[in-house]
């Protein structure tokens, strides 16, 4: 009875209009209880054929039946527990130990831990596996290959497919493996398909198939093939067949040059099939796509599988030092940078000072200097600018004194100071006139009683800071002067009163304003980058495909990742909130659990965005381009750096739907205003983030299922 039947197998890569044909009307029969050696030069299509047999790829035409079912049929066990597949690449998780790897495959194939232990013991002896605790990345190439073989065998499959299993193994071990396969197939119904470059070892196979350019040139027992071609070895027979096919190719090419249409069925040249005569029938190649049955799989999982998948995910993450650094240390480093560098008061500034009232600034520091004195019940001032200079101190900026306004301007223009302040030579008299005469004071007095400030506005934040501080100091100074003169402070007060703020404090810092947005974008993109990296690596290393071929559905793998990440993201959010609360004393007027919840949801959404990227990007480079490309627009447009209200109207509406805009406002509402989750302006942040999470999840699911 046939374990594998391929009828008129046709497969191409590329587009339908210019297909690269890899399998061309291929017929193949593999009997139960036998070894089938598939031989052929590199690139002839062996791996492609095997991938169609295990259900990893679909034929574009023809039919495959494996163990009596079509690969991918729901509940068929193909791909799945009925088949063992050892791919050409190692496709094992480098960070796992030998034992963990065996348990991983055992569990996803549905074996009990007891059974896995027993099988491990048997296979360990047979394949001389490395010590149980040795990490895969510490194993030699040969050891990894043997372990990969053990993983394909662990669940006693009915069909074992081995793609180049003996490459890199020493002759003794190769012989041992062949003896084992011969023994097992003789005493059971196990069917083995094995590809190898060592043609001589294929002598031990019950049947061999000689493949060239996507065609099975011959399929028979090794002895029959040698008899048929009158050769002493299979290698010679293969050579003769290849030469014949080459000659036929030339005929085809010549005819093609003469524009003669040839039937597609001109190949294969010769098929010898003593055990299945049906292969001689050659109907025309059908061109329709065969639907991928994998997509019809319904979601289900088992505790063992979920455990295996989640263990793998955790091991993969935490055994890589970069994984732990990325997840736990990066947030700390980034937050530390943010809190130390953003929103703090500028220091080490130098401010030029010029007062026309003094000949030497030492006069200002004379302990006997009296800037205010009363005579005839009238306040008189002497070198009043000195009082301001003394009150100003060096807290805001270090004062640098100049003998002339020109000197002060020259140094400011050379950026040696942030600017300068200037007092007129009659500043004291002008202030006196202003206080005495009030609205009747002359224009000259009004002008000269001012503090004149010239600031370099190119450094906007520093300039605004200086303006604000100098103005406040001057206001305090004038209040002090009129108080000392027993004059009403109303005279020097601006008719604008800023009362206690409704929310927040008068000293609210930029840091406090942008912290929610910064923290959210940080956890989002950390999750994005990490997830994209993990998934792409898993796909490139072949682990993703191998797990799918073990019967795990793409949906199960997605769920396992989501569960793993949810745990990590919750931990990370907790860590972030605690760190900024304890180390940087960031206040929170609202509920911490609400913040952790929103942050976890943000990280989760970031993870799905990473997954989305990994599904649609082929390489790490491509994924990095997309993630970086998305990062800046999202940050710039979310109102973190500049108020949303300043954007054009259409953009304001547009950015409201972005993942960070409303959620960061919600977080700020919790922190600053102490609002709870029942408030619409808090829960709308959750809704926006949840909506993006669902969108990314659905897109990922569609993408993954299409690829599966
Ligand atoms: N995903 C793909 N897209 C396009 N072409 C592909 C793809 N995979 C394989 N091919 C091409 O199909 C042909 C058959 O490849 P395949 O890997 O099946 O050969 P093979 O016989 O297994 O080779 P080897 O023994 O070197 O592994 C090769 O020319 C290869 O370049």
UniProtKB/TrEMBL annotation:
<dbReference type="InterPro" id="IPR027417">
    <property type="entry name" value="P-loop_NTPase"/>
</dbReference>
<keyword id="KW-0812">Transmembrane</keyword>
<feature type="transmembrane region" description="Helical">
    <location>
        <begin position="623"/>
        <end position="642"/>
    </location>
</feature>
<dbReference type="GO" id="GO:0140359">
    <property type="term" value="F:ABC-type transporter activity"/>
</dbReference>
<keyword id="KW-1133">Transmembrane helix</keyword>
<dbReference type="GO" id="GO:0005524">
    <property type="term" value="F:ATP binding"/>
</dbReference>
<protein>
    <submittedName>
        <fullName>GH10691</fullName>
    </submittedName>
</protein>
<feature type="domain" description="ABC transporter">
    <location>
        <begin position="4"/>
        <end position="238"/>
    </location>
</feature>
<keyword id="KW-0067">ATP-binding</keyword>
<dbReference type="GO" id="GO:0016887">
    <property type="term" value="F:ATP hydrolysis activity"/>
</dbReference>
<keyword id="KW-0472">Membrane</keyword>
<dbReference type="Pfam" id="PF00005">
    <property type="entry name" value="ABC_tran"/>
</dbReference>
<feature type="transmembrane region" description="Helical">
    <location>
        <begin position="596"/>
        <end position="617"/>
    </location>
</feature>
<feature type="domain" description="ABC transmembrane type-2">
    <location>
        <begin position="475"/>
        <end position="707"/>
    </location>
</feature>
<dbReference type="InterPro" id="IPR013525">
    <property type="entry name" value="ABC2_TM"/>
</dbReference>
<keyword id="KW-0547">Nucleotide-binding</keyword>
<dbReference type="InterPro" id="IPR017871">
    <property type="entry name" value="ABC_transporter-like_CS"/>
</dbReference>
<dbReference type="InterPro" id="IPR003439">
    <property type="entry name" value="ABC_transporter-like_ATP-bd"/>
</dbReference>
<dbReference type="GO" id="GO:0016020">
    <property type="term" value="C:membrane"/>
</dbReference>
<dbReference type="InterPro" id="IPR047817">
    <property type="entry name" value="ABC2_TM_bact-type"/>
</dbReference>
<dbReference type="Pfam" id="PF12698">
    <property type="entry name" value="ABC2_membrane_3"/>
</dbReference>
<feature type="transmembrane region" description="Helical">
    <location>
        <begin position="557"/>
        <end position="584"/>
    </location>
</feature>
<feature type="transmembrane region" description="Helical">
    <location>
        <begin position="513"/>
        <end position="537"/>
    </location>
</feature>
<feature type="transmembrane region" description="Helical">
    <location>
        <begin position="683"/>
        <end position="704"/>
    </location>
</feature>
<dbReference type="InterPro" id="IPR003593">
    <property type="entry name" value="AAA+_ATPase"/>
</dbReference>
